Amino acid sequence: MTENKIRRIGVMTSGGDAPGMNAAIRAVVRSGLYHGFEVYGIQRGYEGLLDGGISEMNNHSVSNIINRGGTILKTARSKVFNTPDGVQRGKAMAEIFRLDAIVVIGGDGSFRGARDLHRVGVPVIGIPATIDNDIGCSDYTIGYDTAMNTVKEAIDRIKDTAYSHERCSVVEVMGRNAGFIAINCGIAGGAEACIIPEKEFDVGEDIIKPILSCRNAGKNHYIVINAEGVGGTMEIAEQIRQKTGISTNTTILGHLQRGGSPTVRDRVAASLMGAKATQLLSQGIYGRVVAMKGEGVVDYDIEAALEMKKEIDEHLIHTSKILSLY
Prior knowledge:
11 helices, alpha/beta, seven-stranded mixed beta sheet
């Protein structure tokens, strides 16, 4: 839609938190004020929309948050909103607060909620923020770079102790349905094997064989990266121990990957996408998802955006295997 009748906008963060969300909130608030909007923060995502956790924000509201991880607006997952009645209740609350549009910062599930609001007549803009980098329409998502750097630093430390004890460490990283963190951090961390949800694997061929090849060449410490969507981290470690006799332990990084001060890339990407969202609204354009295309910022129809898929580059997987050879 292109008729400019938007004066008051809401902004929320939804789903899993990601470093850089605060930078996106800051950009939406400050650029929104620049365009003449009143800006309201919605606490706890769709839960806050349902219960009226909405308050006005100004420039001071977002001072000194660009460097902070997490989200000052908090976040939650709402089962109630995932129903037709919940969506209607969300629309009704938006009308009570006279919100002309809502900017939703989050991942795929958050965008599906935004799409549902759009379908019942609430103007929306989506901004992709998820450490998994699994939003099909966007080359990059807020939080991805920071999470990878956190994992990289953890792997470096784990490698130090693996070397000292001559052992194999199996490290589980986030990525329920996507192996972007796992494959990139596997390469960056010099892992002997990397297991991702997108590819079926054989323990013997894809894990045991590379480890033994490295051991036969004189290496005595090893790293295996396993994405959480694959599962079985403890079992993989036990199979390595049983079949090779190598002392093996496990490290599950978990929510450690979500925290921390966002990197420059995440701060800049979040700032550019947040500003783009309010620019679109200032032009009366909504029902869109803002996205990164290369180093540029673009936007897509929200229905089309949710149909887009993203796949890991096969060359990246092949390169990972080549570089694991000792």
